[in-house]
Amino acid sequence: MGSVRKRGKTWNAQVRVSGWRSFTKSFKSKSDANNWISELEQKLASSSIPNASIDNKVLLKELFMKYADEVTPQHKGRIPETYRLKSVARSWIGELNIKYLTKQHFIQYRDDRMNIVEASTVGSELSLMKRVLDTASKRWGYGIPYNPIKDIEFTRVSKTRTRRLKTNEKERLLSAACTQKNIYIAFIIEFAIETGMRRSEILKLGWTDIDFTNGFAFLFDTKNGEDRKVPLTKRCVRLLQKVPQVHEKVFPITANCLRLAWGRARAKAEIKDLRFHDLRHEAISRFFEMGMSVPEVALISGHKDVRQLLRYTHLNPTNIFKKYEAF
After folding, report:
1. One of 61, 99, 113, 280 is an active-site residue; which one?
2. What are the helix (H) ranges across 4-118?
3. Among the options 105, 172, 198, 281, which is catalytic?
4. Known catalytic residue at 281
């Protein structure tokens, strides 16, 4: 059902159709607004409705949460995946009855999200929703006739990031982190830059995994499924010796706590477009600038594929030029 209201010098058109989110748009004339409403209602009404054999009403968000409870805990990236599932479940598409899901619903979701986040993020969300629907049909026995996301084009591969720390950004970050109530944030930031560990690896690390005598950290059941022995720099060992040993974990905070604290520290330091994962890029790039070989860096970072390792490597031309001067 469409409606038109005049607000100031423009006409505001709104369309509400069952099974869709609310659509709004402003126009200079009332006739343009009415034409837009008519075209949109006709487009939405012509969307094919699949004949699904589902007796009871099941909302899409119920499948997302069921997947988060039963399937996601088995995955290595369970924390970010759970966060993503809950986020999608709260959106308008989560309120849809799975009996009437169509390709057009997910196309609309894709187009809406493309105006807010990067294409790679949208691709990850759609890929996750596709897995949820496949699981619901094949494992849980929901009568979903076909997975409508299979026919939608979306970006699955993220663009390579080249972001590294700029002049004084490390000092500004640490200074901002030290002002927070949580004493572990500054330690974690510096530890990440020194070791190149993933966030999940850092938060999982226990004191029994640290060999202070020989300067090693032992990582178990990592992202690639293998254990890893990471050499620690003298600076990193001194850093760990300052961390209070009051818990079995070295950094006893949750991923969400770190995410929020990181955002506050970055904002206070007035640093833009820097993600926590970029610290891993920074560390790996520094390892190469120190003169380490590809096998040596791969041993530390845990990369099995050299091509993937090189995606994390963004050498600083200035540092390379200094090596020329040494010769």
Report:
1. 280
2. 30-45, 60-70, 78-89, 103-114
3. 198
4. no
Q: Is a pLDDT exceeding 70 seen at residue 18?
A: no
323 is catalytic: no
pLDDT of residue 292: 83
Give me the catalytic one of 131, 223, 249, 314: 223
- 3-class SS at 11? strand
To the query of whether residue 105 is one of the catalytic residues in this protein, the response is: no
d(CA 249, CA 280): 21
Q: Which listed residue (164, 277, 311, 314) is catalytic?
A: 277
Structure-block tokens of residue 272: 């833009």
Give residue 281's pLDDT: 87
Determine the Cα–Cα distance for residues 271 and 259; give it in Å rounded to an integer.
Answer: 15
**In this structure, what are the phi and psi dihedrals at residue 68, rounded to the nearest 5 degrees?**
-65, -35
Give catalytic status of residue 238 as yes or no: no
Catalytic annotation present for 247: no
Angle of helix 78-89 relative to helix 119-138, nearest 10 degrees?
90
In 3D, which of 146, 161, 126, 105 has the Cα closest to residue 273?
161
The angle subtended at Cα 58 by Cα 57 and Cα 61, nearest 5°, is 145
Start-to-end Cα distance in the chain: 75
pTM of the model: 0.62
Q: Please indicate whether residue 6 is annotated as part of the active site.
A: no
Q: How many CB atoms lie within 10 A of CB 202?
A: 25
Our measurement of the distance from residue 66's CA atom to the centroid of its chain's CA atoms, rounded to an integer in Å, reads 20
